[in-house]
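User: Could you go from structure to sequence for me? I need the amino acid at each position, not a summary. Structure tokens:
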């Protein structure tokens, strides 16, 4: 896994979960037992944040910068995406 350039891996297709190092994945306390949630994990060395579908842990993970995740979380907190779940 050493030498993976996360900037190169950041693409619309994501990076295969098998190519990521062991990460401490975190999911929302609002997740349900059916696994309907996404998980996020901080990449080593501050390389960004990985996001994956918890039902497919070996599937693709999207890689975002910490700044991108911060903008999303703050926007969600402000209600910017409430129309998507109504």
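Assistant: Here is the amino acid at each position, in order:
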């Amino acid at each position: 896994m050493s030498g993976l350039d996360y900037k190169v891996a950041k693409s619309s297709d994501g990076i295969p979960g098998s190519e990521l190092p062991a990460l401490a994945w975190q999911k929302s306390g609002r997740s349900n037992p059916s696994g309907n949630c996404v998980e996020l994990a901080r990449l080593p060395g501050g390389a960004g944040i990985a996001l994956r579908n918890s039902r497919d842990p070996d599937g693709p993970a999207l890689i975002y910068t910490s700044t991108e995740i911060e903008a999303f979380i703050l926007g969600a907190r402000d209600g910017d995406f409430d129309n998507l779940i109504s």
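One structural detail worth keeping in mind: The first strand starts at residue 15 and ends at 16.
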